[in-house]
Amino acid sequence: MKTGKKFARLEPMFGSLALIVAACFVLGIGWGYSAGKLTQMGPGYFPRIVGFALLGFGALSLYSDVTNPTVSNTRFEWRNLAFVCASILTFAALIDRAGLVPATFVSVALATIADSQNSVKSTLIYTLCVCLFAWGLFIHVLELPLSAFGRG
Amino acid sequence: MLENFLLGLNTVMDPSVFVYAVVGVIIGQLIGVLPGIGAITAISLLLPVTFHLDATTSIIMLAGIYYGSQYGGSIASILLNLPGTPSSVVTCLDGYPMAQKGQAGKALFITATSSFVGSCIGVGIVIMAAIPMSIFALKFGAPEYASLVFLGLLAATMIATGSQIRSLAMVALGIFFGLIGSDISSGAYRFVLIPEMADGISLVSLAMGLFGLGEVIKNIGQKKRRAIDVKITLKDILPSRAEAKGLVGPLLRGGGSGSFFGALPGTGAAIASFMAYAIEKRVSKTPEKFGKGALAGLSGPEAANNAAAQTSFIPTLTLGVPGDAVMALMIGALILNGVIPGPNLMTNEPALFWGVIASFLIGNIILFAINLPLIRFWVMLIRIPYNKLYPIVILMISAGVYSHRNSVVDVIMTLMFGVLGYVLRRYRFEAAPVLLGFVLGPMLEENFRRTMLLYGGDFTVFLTRPICAVFTGLAALIIAFSIFSTVQKGKANRSV
Amino acid sequence: MSIKLRIALPILAALAAPVFAADYPEKTIRLYHGFGPGGNADTVARIVAEEMSQGLGQPVVVESKPGAGGTVASDFISKADPDGYSLQLMVGGHSVAAALYNELPYDAKEDFTFISTIGKFPFFAATQAGAFDDMADLVAQAKEKPGSIKIGHAGVGSTQHLSGELLGLLSGAEFLHIPYKGGAAASTALLGGEVDLMIDAGTSTRGQAEAGTFDILGVTSGERWDDATDVPTISETVAEGYDVLSWTGLGGPAGLSDDVVATLSAEMARVMALPSVQEKITALGAKPSASTPEEFRTLVETQIGVWTTVVKDAGVEKR
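Structure tokens for the assembled complex are given below, as produced in the milestone run.
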């Protein structure tokens, strides 16, 4: 219970905290690049500036989060996030190896399941229709350099 | 001049050329509607076709694809918050809220009209002032670009609706994304964690992820039906007389500023529309409406990016130097046809030069004519229930991003930016400044570093060069104003 | 062995041979290059790909993998399957990169199969019209005030950049080298007067010279160039021994089978003999020149030697 409460209190600050982490990442890696001098700037000059800017603005927005905490009233859509990730990752995994149509099929099916309103039967019919549409549009109308089935 | 223009019209009206002009704009329009499949992809795909055409016809067709795609780009932004190009990111800002309020038809009508008016202003400037504009553009060296881009970054904070600190943080984040990849000035790799990142982050990935995908993640399974246009009568689509009157200013300002930015090699439509948005928000009497469906916020930038699309041909056609990758493709097509582009193009190939310019006018009329009736069709698309629409949107994003440069890594990056976009919104950070930082950051770095190299680290160039001085002055004004208003706000808060 | 079989075998072999050759290519060939669309490499790739698609009976698709002077594409190709479906349109930058980078993720000689050169072209030294009398004048001014003459180039580590460094090295003058994002941006800078000199391909310099905006002071080839015989060589004016020729060529990952190399080599010989291709390559400012795989390899190896010396002597920072 207690940890839950603590989480709720810290939650509004996550965004700004993430920015500060990102700033540390930029500075940490960017420090490895040579900064050069003003007339002959090295690749590390701007990353340092950007890193400090990110750190500064992140800290300022953290301050405003602390003084004026605002929690988003919508809940975090874990289910949507998970299925969208699954859908796009399978597309990425299949497009090179299996071709456009299989990638489309699995990806669209996974995306459709994200919405619990969709039934199995309608999902199947719908997915097949989308595959046909994608095949027609990308392969035949646009003639993109993709293969419908198998490796390109 | 009129005589030349008539020569151009004559060239375009030749049926064998006219057909390709029409084909070009229609393909461009279609490609533009499909987010992610940008003008470059379309032009690269069609480049082999031009091997069999003469130079004039090739350029007219390729140009049609380019500015046609500028028209189409707004449609997915308005209906689905899905921008395929950085300039359509600006269209999302006020276009999408309008669609959510059930005014998609009106938004599309205003977009089509603004695009048309903007293009006409751009074409007019190309016809009347191509040469002076190109001479002016040559006055822009590294210090001018550096100060202009700096001004643009400041304008980014005006685009956001929320706190300035937060939007500045987002600009910095965007600049960081822009730094990833190989450094132009030294060739060194920066933040390249896997070899596929060496080319840097794809703009399409970033835009479609932050905007389109973030929106999808938020909306799936929402019981609340989206507001739809119940009837699509002409009355619902047309703006009221008062609204129309209010659009004259944004259109002229957008068309004018867009023409200016377009003519500078290396800036282009994206900066034009961001700047136009900032200008409109600044001059508006109701800036609080921006981001919630302000007509001026839709119309001004739309006019600007289309005007820029036309004037970006100025350096290419009058100087023979391409301003961006799309223009480089056009030059490539010219060279292949034995036409060496250069300052002599206008005198050596008047039929080509003026034919291309006249085709802009014809092409825009065709685009306007096909877009108006299509509004009905697009609005009907929104009636598709969201649970049937979003899987297609996800597919369009994956396939569009993939086809952009055949990279699986880009698809995965898009997903990461989608998640980021969703999370950012939850913590009241806006995505538009990220995009602007991403586009402008590397330009600022490149030009600032070059300025320092050229002038031996002398900062006074930013004040002594007249054009620089103007931009530096404007930037100083913006900073002073925002400090002033913050202080004012602080006082007001304390007194309450 | 029965008579039937004895007759059948050669027939089978005869049948089998074309079947083998016809095996490749049986699907789309991807022709990669390391530069943006519309650039020289892209255009050459498209010209060749168009004809190869017809000759080989399979689509040859041009794909751009830009980044770090083309090394991103070279890295990609060096690690691609040596099945002949991933090829590279190589440019002179391949040898430059080998000299410039401390640690390339590939070996510029051993990780590649070199099939045939396509075109060879020199660069031209261009200035704003009327800015200098000739090469000697420019070099004299540079010597008088070291670092006052600015050379704009298409990017750090580009052949254009190193050509500028070589000019400084051989002429003994000190220049300030300013990197731009590609040759077009450098041209714009020269037009606007931000830099004094650019050394770049004929496509970006000669059109301007014809219009009278640029003066062409010299050509980088060791001997005067065929279709620009009035332009003196840099070697005969200010920098003896100056000889820079860039090239385009077709290559692939190491370990391509002899059959594939033979098929591609024959196809290239056919394509390069086509008048339409020769015409287009010439329009791009290059001399169409097909070669054998061996000649191509020798060219690359010699150039790597030259550029390694330039990088070392000019003190260009390696990466």
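Chain B has a mean pLDDT of 86. Strands of chain B lie at 181-182, 189-190. Further analysis is deferred to the final report.
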